[in-house]
Specification:
The complex is a heterodimer.
Chain A lengths: L1 E5 L2 H7 L5 E7 L2 H4 L5 H17 L5 E7 L5 H5 L2 H6 L2 E4 L3 H10 L4 E4 L1 E11 L2 E6 L15 H4 L21 E2 L1 E2 L2 E2 L1 E3 L5 E3 L1 E2 L4 H11 L38
Chain B lengths: L10 E6 L3 H10 L8 E6 L7 H9 L4 E5 L1
Parallel strand pairs in B: 1-2, 1-3
Chain lengths: 249, 69
C-alpha cells in the first residue's frame, strides 16, 4: 500500500495564511490503514488546527470530511458541496489524492497535509517498510520475493557489494519521526541525527534462496536493467482499451 | 460548562463500564466525595476511547481528560 506520514502541524498551518474556511479531506484507503490520513486523522487534524489557530488569536473555521478513495472522481463528487464552502482544501491523502482533488476542483486551492513516503507494508504494529519502487518491470521471480530495487541501497542485480557486512548494508538510515530527523546529543554536546541499520537486501535474498534450495539461481547473470519502464522513462501511463467506455456519439 | 458551577479545573473522566465506572459507582455508594468539577462519562470499554473525544472536550473548555479502565 501507499504509506504516508502527516506533515508537522506548523507546516500545515503555514499553508492556511489568507484563508478562513478550511476543509480537511481524509482518504479511506491506503492512508487510513497506515494511520496517517483517514477519518480519525482528519478529525484530529481539524480539531488541532481549530485549537491552534484559536490560540494564535485568529481562529479559522476548520471542518473535515473523509471519502472512501480520493483518487477516484466518483467519490470526489460526493463532497462537492463541502468543497464549494471552503477557501482552502487540506488533503491528507497521498500525492495522488491531492492531485485528484486539485484536478477535480480546479477553482480550489488544494494543499497537502501528508508526505507520501513510500510503497510498503506494515512489518509489525507501528512499523512500515519500503518494499516496492514501482519500477514497472518486476524481477521478484529472480530474487526469491525480496526486491533489490527497493531494498538494496545501490539497486544491484547480481548479488551484494563489498559494503555488506553481517547482513547489514554499509548505508545507514537517519531515524525519522513525523518526517523529521530524530536528534541526539553526542559526548561533545553536538546535535547529531540518530542512525539506524539497514538490512542488506542481497544478504536476505541469499539466505532465502539457500533455505529454499535455489542458490543456483544466483549463478545466472542479470543484464543491466531496462529502466525505461521506471520513472527514467518519464511519467508513465497505462491504456486499457478493453476497459475504456465507448463513445457512441 | 463545568466552570459555571465551580472554579475547580474541569476534568472529564471516561470510565469503562466494567471497572472504573463501577468503582465510581461504588465510591458514590460509600459516600466518598470527589470534586464537583469532575464529570464521569460511561464508555463500553476504555479501548473505545478515541483521541478526538479528548480534543473535542478540550475545544469545549475542559481542562483535563482522564481515561480510566
Amino acid at each position: 500500500m501507499i504509506v504516508g506520514e502527516q506533515k508537522p502541524l506548523e507546516e500545515i498551518k503555514g499553508f492556511l495564511d489568507g484563508s478562513q474556511k478550511v476543509l480537511v479531506v481524509g482518504c479511506g484507503t491506503c492512508v487510513t490503514v497506515c494511520f496517517a490520513g483517514g477519518e480519525k486523522e482528519a478529525q484530529i487534524l481539524a480539531a488541532s488546527l481549530r485549537m491552534s489557530t484559536a490560540l494564535t488569536g485568529a481562529p479559522k473555521e476548520v471542518t473535515d470530511v473523509t471519502v472512501q478513495r480520493q483518487c477516484e472522481w466518483e467519490y470526489l463528487d460526493l463532497i462537492k458541496n463541502e468543497v464549494q464552502e471552503a477557501d482552502i482544501i487540506v488533503s491528507i491523502a497521498c500525492g495522488i489524492g491531492v492531485q485528484a482533488m486539485a484536478k477535480h476542483f480546479p477553482d480550489k486551492w488544494v494543499v497537502p497535509g501528508l508526505n507520501t513516503t513510500f510503497l510498503g507494508l506494515p512489518e509489525e504494529q507501528g512499523i512500515w517498510t519500503e518494499q516496492c519502487q514501482a519500477c514497472g518491470n518486476c524481477i521478484l521471480a529472480l530474487t526469491g520475493g525480496i526486491c533489490p530495487i527497493a531494498r538494496c541501497s545501490k539497486q544491484l542485480l547480481n548479488g551484494p557489494c563489498g559494503g555488506s557486512e553481517k547482513g547489514l548494508c554499509e548505508v545507514k538510515r537517519i531515524k525519522r519521526e513525523h518526517g523529521l530527523p530524530v536528534m541526539q546529543t553526542d559526548a561533545r554536546g553536538r546535535k547529531t541525527p540518530v542512525i539506524e541499520d539497514v538490512d542488506c537486501a542481497w544478504h536476505l535474498i541469499h539466505e532465502r534462496l539457500k533455505a529454499l534450495g535455489k542458490l543456483d539461481m544466483l549463478t545466472q547473470i542479470q543484464p543491466p536493467k531496462d529502466w525505461s519502464t521506471a520513472r527514467d522513462g518519464g511519467p508513465r501511463r497505462i491504456v486499457r482499451e478493453d476497459l475504456m467506455l465507448l463513445d457512441e456519439g | 460548562m463545568i466552570k459555571d458551577v465551580c472554579n475547580e479545573p474541569g476534568i472529564l473522566a471516561f470510565c469503562c463500564r466494567h471497572c472504573a465506572y463501577v468503582a465510581a459507582d461504588l465510591a458514590g455508594s460509600m459516600r466518598l466525595r470527589y470534586p464537583a468539577s469532575l464529570r464521569v462519562v460511561e464508555i463500553p470499554c476504555s479501548g473505545k476511547f478515541e483521541v478526538i473525544q479528548a480534543l473535542y472536550a478540550f475545544e469545549r473548555g475542559v481542562d483535563g481528560v482522564m481515561v480510566a479502565g
